[in-house]
Write a structure and sequence with these properties.
By secondary structure, the chain is an alpha+beta fold. It has three helices and 24 strands. The strands form six sheets. The protein has a six-stranded antiparallel barrel with strand order 9-12-11-10-13-15. Strand 13 and strand 14 form a beta hairpin. The protein is rod-shaped. The N terminus is likely disordered.
């Protein structure tokens, strides 16, 4: 039996129908034109301006509030509320004696610091004077004796370092009877006899003192000093006697003496510190100006530096106090108060004789022109606001409104 399959034929028919529908739709979309409708209207003209409104309170463009400078007494009130004042007019006066007290205190401190600086400067001068003595030199020519220190020792001002004797000449002091008073004179030649050396030396009378020394025999005597050149053999404390010649007569002393060095000088430290070097040596001969000792001056340098720093600090303090005095003087304007503007006194909160708390409002002054208004507007309108754009201001009145330009 022969079987016939019919499904492919059915599917083929369905496909043909689908293609026919799709083609009709495409033709409708792309190859046909719809008929357009015409819309009509009328053109008009009008304003695009936007009015922005806000309300506010008028305030003076310039105003001053004056507050009390202190809690001192109000000495005078020169205005009342409602008064018209001009710039510079007196408003009120408050006791400013505390300003004077502050200035006096600052000045006292300045005087103290000035005295301190003077004292520091005196100390520095003394230190510099001592520093000039760190190098010790021989004041006279002679022979060194009694060296008391060595290098490395620490000395204080006034300590004895050594002695220098001038032995190029020797002096002999003797006493002659007043019977020879008119015969003996300075510059008179003398002969000095030294028993220890069994020699005599020529000398000269160099000093006469009219003292009164009485010997055991009752002879009244005066002092005569004879100077003799030292050939090198004469030494201190040698017994000696000198006679003088007057008119062929030899005048002998009632009291003889001993030879002494013409001069001697004890060398003392004029500053304090460690001895860096010692050039002096016992029995050594030195000339005037020779260096004998050298003292370390580092401690003096440190003291000078410290004093200089203290002076700078004191000077800085004086500058600060001087500035405070200037500020105090400037603050007097807070006690004698004048108006800074032309305007009207709106409020007076003080009276004469009272002592208000510091910083309390005393007087308020408003300038009458120009005035300002701070108005609140919708934040959505901020893009329409520009600086310097004109503003029409309307003041509402009981009977009618008043307009101003701003």
């Amino acid at each position: 039996m022969k079987v016939i399959h019919k499904k492919p034929i059915l599917f083929l028919l369905v496909g043909l129908v689908t293609l026919a529908v799709a083609g009709a739709v495409c033709w409708k979309l792309f190859f046909t034109t719809a008929e357009a409708a015409v819309l009509t209207g009328q053109t008009t003209y009008g304003s695009l301006a936007k009015t922005i409104e806000g309300t506010g309170i008028t305030m003076p463009a310039d105003s001053y509030t004056y507050s009390t400078a202190s809690d001192t007494e109000i000495e005078k009130v020169a205005v009342s509320a409602g008064d018209t004042v001009h710039k510079g007019d007196l408003l009120y006066v408050q006791d400013d004696s505390e300003v004077d007290e502050a200035i006096d205190d600052y000045q006292d401190q300045i005087d103290d610091y000035t005295d301190q600086i003077s004292n520091y400067q005196d100390q520095m001068a003394d230190l510099r004077e001592e520093m000039a003595q760190v190098t010790v030199t021989a004041p006279i020519s002679g022979r060194v004796q009694d060296v008391a220190v060595e290098a490395g020792d620490t000395v204080k001002k006034g300590d004895a370092l050594c002695t220098i004797v001038s032995d190029s000449q020797m002096v002999l002091k003797q006493y002659f009877s007043y019977a020879y008073e008119e015969l003996i004179y300075e510059g008179m030649p003398a002969v000095v006899s030294v028993p220890d050396l069994m020699k005599s030396f020529d000398g000269t009378v160099t000093d006469i003192r009219k003292v009164e020394r009485v010997t055991s025999e009752g002879t009244r005597c005066f002092a005569v000093t004879v100077t003799v050149d030292n050939p090198g053999a004469l030494a201190e404390d040698m017994e000696a006697g000198a006679y003088l010649s007057a008119g062929g007569e030899k005048l002998y002393p009632a009291v003889e003496g001993k030879l002494e060095h013409q001069g001697s000088k004890t060398i003392t430290a004029q500053c304090s510190g460690e001895l860096l070097s010692v050039a002096a040596e016992d029995y050594g001969k030195v000339g005037a100006g020779d260096v004998l000792f050298q003292v370390d001056d580092s401690d003096y340098q440190d003291q000078l530096s410290d004093l200089a720093d203290q002076i700078v600090r004191a000077e800085d303090r004086i500058a600060t106090l001087t500035q405070r005095i200037a500020e105090a003087e400037e603050s007097r304007g807070d006690y004698t108060v004048t108006s800074d503007i032309d305007g009207k006194v709106i409020m007076v909160m003080v009276r004469e004789g009272e002592t208000p708390t510091k910083g309390r409002t005393a007087v308020m002054v408003y300038a009458l022109t120009p005035m300002s208004i701070t108005a609140s507007i919708d934040e959505l309108d901020i893009d329409y606001i520009e600086k310097d754009m004109p503003v029409r201001i309307v003041r509402s009145g009981a009977e009618q409104d008043t307009e101003y330009e701003g």
